[in-house]
Write a structure and sequence with these properties.
The protein is an alpha/beta fold. The protein folds into 2 domains: about 110 residues, Rossmann fold, CATH 3.40.50; about 100 residues, 3-Layer(aba) Sandwich (Rossmann fold), CATH 3.40.50.1000. About 35% of the residues lie in helices and about 20% in strands. It is built from 8 helices and 15 strands. Strands 5-4-1-13-14-15 form a 6-stranded parallel beta sheet, sandwiched between helices. It has a 5-stranded parallel beta sheet with strand order 7-6-8-9-12, with helices on both faces. A two-stranded antiparallel ribbon has the order 2-3. A hairpin with a 2-residue loop joins β2 and β3. α3 packs parallel to α4, α3 crosses α7 and α5 crosses α6. It is globular, with a radius of gyration of 18 Å.
Length: about 260
């Protein structure tokens, strides 16, 4: 190890859990972080759920951590909007994870001339909501999306996600959204600020080259790629950038805490 690690950021799906089950080594990794008193956050581009919801889901899989240690794209988006226009207004398409975060950031949710149209993930995208968003954006509202993921998983197969619906709205308005979630380094920097950590001695653990690793690199973090998610070893060579370290799973990192 060339750089000491004092704080940790880690992706959730594909790193800690897979289809509702803890990946071997994940409970031990989180327990080691808590026992050592290391600052850490679990990051997710999922904007559907609140940290409380996600904490409960992780607990069901056997991973115990406080909700304060979960940082979602919805929370990062709400923080970004608060920094841009404190006490502003938004028309939000999304679930409780997004609307709760916006409310807690002091935002008013409205359909009447909002400062922002904020697109998050939901299982119930409606034609009416999308039409409203298009008209508001063409009327001057700024376009924000929580994350660029084009599909999400389900038991029946892939579902259209935020990035896919954002592309539809962009096509209709000619206005591209600003994506706050991974791989935007702003998500990682907001996470660092949340736990009072510095990029020089913080690591990011992820399973995707195109979100976790590239975002971590651009934020100046040490990056660990694990092979328990969507990336295979041969995939690494396809990218013009490399993670700092490649490991089989999160279990290989417990000793580094």
């Amino acid at each position: 190890m060339t750089r000491p690690i004092a704080a940790w950021l880690t992706d959730m799906d594909g790193v800690l859990v897979h289809e509702g089950h803890a990946i071997p080594g994940a409970p031990e990794f989180i327990a080691a972080l808590r026992d050592a008193g290391r600052p850490f956050l679990v990051l997710t581009n999922n904007s559907i759920f609140t940290p409380r919801d996600l904490r409960a889901r992780l607990a069901t899989s056997g991973i115990e951590l406080p909700e304060e240690n979960i940082w979602t794209s919805a929370l990062a988006t709400a923080q970004f909007l608060h920094d841009q226009i404190p006490g502003g207004s938004a028309y939000a398409i999304g679930e409780a994870g997004l609307t709760t975060a916006l409310h807690e950031a002091g935002y008013t949710l409205t359909e009447s001339d909002p400062d922002y149209v904020v697109l998050g993930e939901t299982r119930t995208y409606s034609f009416e909501q999308i039409t409203k968003a298009i008209r508001l954006i063409k009327g001057g509202s700024r376009f924000i999306a929580t994350n660029p993921d084009t599909t999400g998983p389900s038991l029946e197969g892939p579902l259209p996600a935020t990035g896919a619906v954002a592309a539809l709205i962009q096509s209709a308005t000619g206005r591209a959204p600003y994506y706050v979630g991974k791989p935007n380094p702003i998500l990682f920097r907001s996470a660092l600020n949340r736990i009072g950590a510095h990029s020089e001695d913080t690591a990011m653990v992820g399973d995707r080259m195109d979100t976790d690793v590239v975002g971590g690199i651009e934020a100046g973090l040490t990056t660990f790629l694990v092979m328990t998610g969507s990336t295979r070893p041969q995939d690494v060579e396809k990218y013009p950038f490399r993670p700092s370290h490649v490991k089989d799973s999160i279990a290989d990192l417990v000793a580094l805490v």
